[in-house]
Design a protein that fits this description.
Mean pLDDT of chain B: 82
Distance between the termini of chain B: 62 Å
Oligomer: heterodimer
Order of helices and strands of chain B: EEEEEEEHEEEEHEHHEEEHEEHEEEHH
Strand content of chain B: 25-35%
Strand content of chain A: 35-45%
Helix content of chain B: 25-40%
Largest interface: A-B, 37 and 40 residues
Number of strands of chain B: 20
Largest sheet of chain B: 10 strands, mixed
Shape of chain A: flat
Low-confidence stretches of chain B: 93-98
Radius of gyration of chain B: 31 Å
Number of helices of chain B: 8
Largest sheet of chain A: 11 strands, mixed
Number of strands of chain A: 13
Radius of gyration of chain A: 32 Å
Chain lengths: 372, 428
Amino acid sequence: MTSQPGMDVFTAWGQDLQPAVCERCHWRYLTPREALADAKGAPLCPHCFQARMTALPDENLREGNIPYLPELIAPFEVSEAGLQTAIASFRQGIPYAPPDLTFDHLRARLNPIFLPLWLVDGQVQALWKAEVGFDYQVVSHQEEYSDRAAGAGQWKTREVKESRIRWEPRIGRANRSYQNVNAPAMEESAALRTRLGDFDLSKSVAYQPAHPIRAWVRLPDRSTHDAWTEAAAAFQCELTEDCQKAAAANHVRQFQWQAQFDHLNWTLLLLPAYTTFYYDDDHCPQSVMIHGQNGAVTGQRRASMRRAQRAAFILFLIGLAIALIGLAVGVAAMYSSDLTAIAAIAFLIGLPLMVSALAPLTVAWNFNRRKE
Amino acid sequence: MTQIAFPPPGYVQTDSLVEGIEIYAPADETAQRPEQVSFKCPNCGATTAFDVSTQKLSCEHCGYTEETHIQQVGRAAEQFEFKVETMQRAEQGWGTARKEMSCKSCGAVISSPPDALSYLCPFCGSNEVIFREALRDVLRPHSLIPFKTRPQDCVEITQRWLASSWMTPVALRSAAAVGKFAPLYIPYWTFSACSHAAWKAQVGKEVHERYYANGEWHDRTRMEWHWESGKVTNTFTDYLVPGAARLNVSTLSEISGYAVADLVVYQPELLAGLQAQSADIPLDQAWDAGRQVMRERTRSSCYDRITTSHVRDFQMSLDFSDETWRYILVPLYTSGYTYDQKHYQILLNGQNGKVAGPRPVDWKKVTWVMVGLFAPGVLLGLIGLLLMMTQNDVTVGGFALFLLVIGAVISLFIFFAAQRMEKAGGGA
């Protein structure tokens, strides 16, 4: 799909989508128009979950003269069972998990979302130079000598082969066209990639307007101008690889070029993810993301210090009560020595319980510290 | 990026496996040169040849001389690794097929032996040097040690050498008819490597002790054994192994001592008019010989670190690294001389002037010397015998026996030295 200045965006998307923005985190989305017209009110931002979405005028669908046109879409591939496993695994193993961090909450708040990636087509004309490496093997020798009875004064020779690389300079000209070279379309692309991991782009399919999008589509916040640095680097990577192949080399290094780009065409690739959230102790929503292809889950896993404090307080109270009973029995034992043993046992139980009240706090604090 | 000048000088286009990409690689210098280089005088058209005396190309006919481009590289001369493909090729050898060359001067097709690096056309006498192949093939020489000894000095050096031993006939220097010295380049392999050895051995220390037995004290020496171990690293640089099997190894070793520091880059001019042979001892075989010497020297180094002379269960493991080789040509003169109607072949080192070969021995002179060595012992023995019989004194007899033994040892040494001189020859 090529970008044409002035092209009707809705013709390109082929669906009744409404641009919207979160006034808090400033993420902009496209969403089915009816989603914003919900009787319960506008939905929460599927990124920060702290503000309701606000509808935007339709012209926000283009950056300058370039409309945000989808070309490829990587479909959601995680099954319902896979999603449940991912959510359950996120919850698992958190000591004193926040009360809101439950399977049901996470599942109910799940939002499918598409994250954008720029796809650039272009013709590259370049002068390049590089060092190409060719693998080769050399023969070396290892020897053993022994004057022991069995092999008295005998040398045993073993031939060994070692692999080395021979580097040779190459220089050349290139005139190649490349399709769908990737460039980040969001400021958070690198951070999200670190959190979610890589996507298998080979599973992408052509965007079909006939297939309705039932997910939030995040709009780019990096202009093509800003993304050009990464796009040019990606073009360079592609050409480096091609030059290595062209030279029939095994390796390449110190690739330098002088390039000229023509017929650049920018479109979008949509990558699938799920977002959900839970409220922490301070009633702040904590975002959880699930990779839309492999179900890898990522988000802040924090123990609730409030729950830990409550558990510690209860333990301390129980211990204190038993210790006080022990004290009372001890006073009574001044008149009847038979009660001395009971008083001692009450102290022996009560005091350690009071001390062990520190354990929930330590466990929760330590868990949070490790997660930081 | 720095500005790329395109197409860059010294680069040639190579095959590309991807459409739309052109590739240029540094030009192979040898590919642009002719396979054979002929040497003709621009003045008179006669054949020019490398003159060892002037280190120039010269025409014997009209006296024309031309500078040669000698590029001394010494130990920095190009070295090669033991690549698997090179070793496989070295094992296969060059076969026995002869090479067909077309003479640039007269057009005659010359069939040359495959190991010849230079050739003289038998029809027109022009010099042909097989050049391109020599540089493109790593199993051909890339550097050589040029001649330093001038041909006109060779006769005098030889005559000095002939007269340098008392065992040769007195008239040898004046009566020997020394032949013409033919300059020849012969092949040598040079090897460099690092050997890393780890050794362990049981070493014995003598312990002297006293013990009491049968009512009295005795002394005895006992050996206490314990393990010692260590590591040794040796670096071998430019170890020379001859590449010519047809030359007498012992004669060759007599004149060895080629200084690799004089290596120059192989140039066809340096071989013009001279004979040059390529190696008939293949690389793998020569490397086996070189490695044997290196490992034995490493073993000696390990032994040197052992603290006593009592050693048993000596074991070592040795790992070679940074192994490189060179294939070089070294200068040599071959000649001979006639004395007393017998012909003797000699070799003369073209770099340092050492001579080796058989020399006639004046056995009469040698016999008289040996008799002279025995004489004091025999005479004193007779006197000692008389004294023993008359005065029962064995002192003189004992001293005579000592002199006889000394005389016998020296005589034997002289006898074997003379024999060796007659057969192969001691260097000078």
